[in-house]
Amino acid sequence: MSEERRVHLSRSAPPAYQALAAFSKTVGGIAGEGGIDDRLKELVQIHTSQLNGCAYCVRVHIERAVKAGVTADVIGQLPVWRESGVFSDRERAGLELAESFVFIHEEGVPDDVYNRVGTILSEKEYVALSWILVSINAFNRIAIAGRYSTPPRDDLVGEDKDAASGAAW
Fold first, then answer.
1. pTM of the entire structure?
2. Average model confidence (pLDDT) across the chain
C-alpha cells in the first residue's frame, strides 16, 4: 500500500462532505419509510463497496451489519451470493440492483434486472434501495479518490471520526 498522502476531501471541503452526510441521513429516512431493514441496507452497501474496491467503506458497513445481527457467514457469502442459499429473494434483488448501480456506465439498470427486481420489491422499496446505492457509491468515490487508509481496526477512528462513529451516513 502506498504511503502517498492525498487530499482528504471530507476534511478539505467540510461543507460538501456535511451536505453528503445530510443527504445520506435523508436517504436513511427514505429507506426506513420504504421498508428497507438494516440487514438489507448494510448487505447492499457492503457488496457495492466490495465491487468498487473501497476497503474503507467495506469495513464501516461490515461493522454496522454485525450490529444489525448479520453473521460472519452471511457477510462471507456476499461475493458468491448467486450461488449461496443464505439470502432471501428481497436480498438477492437488492444485491443484483447494487451490481447494476456499480456498473451503471455499462447499460444503466438493464431491463431484465429492472423487471426481475420489480417482481420482488415494491416501487417504494426499489426507490429506497436506489437512493441507498447512489449514496454509498458517492461515499466510495470519496474514500477511493482520497486513498483512505484501512489500518488495523483499533485505529479506524484516526481516519474519519464521523464515519467510524456512524455519524456520517
1. 0.86
2. 89
